Amino acid sequence: MTLPGAPRKPTIRDVARVAGVSHGTVSRYLNGGHWVSPEAREAVEAAIVSTGYTANHAARSLATGRSGSLAFLLTESQQLLFSDPTFALLLRGATEALAERSMTLVLLIAGTEAERENVERYVRAGHVDGVLLVSSHESDALLASLVVAGVPTVCSGVPTGDLAIAHVAIDEVEAARKMTRHLVRGGHRRIALITGPHDTPGGRLRLAGFRDELGDRFDPDLVEQGSYERASGDAAMTRLLERAPDIDAVFAASDVMAVGAIDALRRAGRRVPEDVAVAGFDDSGLAETAKPPLTTVRQPWAQISSTMVDMVLDVIAGRPRDAVILPTDLVVRESA
């Protein structure tokens, strides 16, 4: 009930009148911005500001069956969320992309079995319109469960298993080949690799690129697995030095593990890069501040996030999407 004398709240028809567009154009803008020209978008945004319009999300949810929110789903431990800056970059990019559409991002963590069960119930109950899955493991059945339930889902990275899911990825194999080639051209002959978990796309495909580039020079004894955490990079580097003290370069499949590898090398009295060159992967911000600054592979984080949001909104709207592969850059700094 509106109290006597209370100002009337502006409606989308008011926004349409001020913007000089149709009611339907404003409605499309508010529901994701599809099929709205840049000129109309600009006019609508200005009209929203000038009229003071705010969407009634509860009413819209009842009318459309949509929540106006997406889930940012991380199937890793809470610790990794705060220790690996790549997730923060993706989270920030997705939040910004949704804010432009007046939508909300809900952070969900499913690192344990109990958390996975809770997340599955929450998502399947319709509390979010779709899912941005930013990590996946072959042993995790959550992705398959979302697919079976018909939840619009887009993955960051190539999905594990045989599931045909829309995804945004980089060319992991070529990126790893590019970095390995750089180390070889730098004159290094005993190049080690610290991989990510082999049941993840990055862990499996970066190893494949490293092995392909080295060809006959590939030595499986110079490969150790990490978990994308700093301590795992330290431990992997320690094992490599014990087994092969003549290593002259190491390529870590993440910047975080590369920093851990440098910790181990320093304890062993090895200088970086004079004795051992170190390369990372991601260019997440940590690489630039590391000592020495890391040579790494730069992923286009903002583009990954915004593309994932665009794709999942297309899937929600009934426009199927397949895959988008984005380019990477080799960034050369002091460590290699």
Strand and helix layout:
Elements: H1 12-19, H2 23-30, H3 38-51, H4 57-64, E1 69-74, H5 78-83, H6 85-99, E2 104-109, H7 113-124, E3 130-133, H8 142-148, E4 153-156, E5 166-170, H9 172-185, E6 191-195, H10 201-214, E7 223-225, H11 230-243, E8 249-252, H12 255-267, E9 277-279, H13 286-289, E10 296-298, H14 301-316, E11 323-326, E12 329-331
Parallel strand pairs: 1-2, 1-3, 3-4, 4-5, 5-11, 6-7, 6-8, 8-9
Antiparallel strand pairs: 10-12
Helix pairs in contact: 1-2, 1-3, 6-14, 9-10, 11-12
Number of strands: 12
**Which of globular, elongated, flat, extended, rod-shaped describes the shape?**
elongated
- The CATH class of the largest domain is Alpha Beta
* Largest sheet, spatial ordering of strands: 2-1-3-4-5-11
Taking the sheet with the most strands, its summary is: 6 strands, parallel
Low-confidence stretches: 57-65
| Oligomeric state | single chain
Helix content: 40-55%
Give the CATH architecture of the largest domain. 3-Layer(aba) Sandwich
Q: What's the CATH topology name of the largest domain? A: Rossmann fold
Number of helices: 14
H-E string: HHHHEHHEHEHEEHEHEHEHEHEHEE
Quote the beta fraction: 5-15%
Question: What is the SS-derived class?
Answer: alpha/beta
Q: Provide mean pLDDT, rounded.
A: 87
